[in-house]
Specification:
28% strand, globular, 28% helix, Glutaredoxin, 167 residues, seven-stranded mixed β-sheet, alpha+beta
Amino acid sequence: MTTAAAPKAPQHPKIGKLAPAFSLLDQNGAKVSLKDYKGKAAVVLYFYPKAMTPGCTVQACGLRDTKAELEKLGAVAIGMSPDSVARLAKFEDKHDLNFTLLSDEDHAVADKYGVWGLKKFMGKEFMGLIRTTFIISKEGKLVRIMDKFKTKTHHDDVIAALTELND
C-alpha cells in the first residue's frame, strides 16, 4: 500500500540571484514582463490571494496611496494574483488603483516564486496563494523577501525596506 506524499513546502528563490522571469497580462490585457523594468526601476512584486477581498483591498490601497514615495525610492509596485484579467480591471476601477496588476490564473509564476502552497482557513486545508512580497533590484536580482506583515501596514514595511536598501 502506498500513501500519497504530502505536498512539499514551497521554496522561494534565493536572495542575490536573478528573480524568476515572467510575462503575463495586466488588468488592461497588455503583456507585461519583468525584463521591462530592468535598468529602470526596482520592482515591488507582491502576491495576493484574491482581488476585491478585504485584506487584499487594504493592501492594494496602501500601495496606491504611497505611489509617489515608491517612485522617489526608484521603485514600482506590481500586484499578482490568480484572478482573471476582467476581475483585475474591476479591482483597479473600483479602488482607483494606480499600478500594474497581473493575472497568474494558472499560478505558474506563483509556483516559480514559491508562493503557491498549502494553506489553512477555518479548519480546512487547501492549495492557494501565500501572501508574499519580493523586492527586485533594477538589475533584476532578488534583494528582499517579505512574508510576515499585516496588510494594513504592508506599504509602510515596503517603504522601510526600500529605504534601508537604498542607504
